[in-house]
Structures are given as C-alpha cells and as structure tokens.
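Page 42, continued from yesterday. The earlier attempt failed because a stray header line got pasted into the input along with the sequence. Redoing it now with the clean sequence only.
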Amino acid sequence: MTHEPLSEAMYLRLKTLWTGTPALRKKKQPRRTPTGSEPFAPGRDPVPLFSVITDVSAGLGWDGALSQAALVSDWSNVVGPDTAANTEIDRFNDGVLTVRCSSTAWATQLAFIASDILTRLLAEHPDSGLTKITFIGPNAPSWKRGPRAIQGRGVRDTYG
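This time it went through. Structure tokens are written below.
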C-alpha cells in the first residue's frame, strides 16, 4: 500500500465525482535502459579522433576510395622525383592505374618496369585494389577535328 499525497487523492476523487467515471492513477513508467547519452554512463569516455574517423570511413564504405587517394598522393614518393616529374596519374578505374607520360619514350621505359612499380605500390597501399598499371604517351594533336576540318580525305590537288 502506497501513500499518495493528499492533493493527488483529492484531485482524483473530485475528477471521479465530476466526470462520473472512476479516475485512474497514472502507472509509473518502467525504467528505461540507458542509451549511452546519460552522463557518467559506460561508453562516455573520450575517444581518439583517428579511431572515430576510421570507424566512420569503414561504416560508410570509404576505405577503398581513401586508399586509392593515398596511393595517388604518394605516387612521387614511390616512383622517385625524376619519374614523377615526367608522369601524372590520368585515372584509376576498376583496379587499373593509367599513368600519362611526358613522351612515348618514358611510357615505353616505364612499361618495362611496370611490375616493379606495381609491387612497390601494393606493398605501400595494399587496400587500394590496384591490379594493373598502364603507361600511355602524351596526347597527340588530332587534325580530324576543328572548325576548318574537311570530311573525308579532303582535296588532293593541293600540291600540284
């Protein structure tokens, strides 16, 4: 038997007389389980920022993209300053890294040592998903497009 305050008992009795139906007492709410937002609850200790960022990136599925971005930014450290000065990463799609070289000679020479560069990159960035490196030469000008381009083979009487 619980003792309720006199004011609450009087209120319930008057409510019963006034409405004609018995007034019900409010049931006490069951105690909720802590959600972790209460002060001094377990799990409220400070956490290092690096571990929080790592957990968020793993939860959102960004690990592969972040590893690929780290590989691209670390390109000059892996291949050296001379090679980095004559190359730039063109694209990274489906595990294939395409590197544009300043000349076809650079592209040919780097194609010979592509397996060594791939091994070094995989050792430095194993989570990047890299499977192959392709070296391409510079963009050559195309004479087939432009405001004064002629469809077909063009005129053939130019050189007399």
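Notes: Residues 93 and 130 are 9 Å apart (CA to CA).
Reminder to self: strip header lines before submitting.
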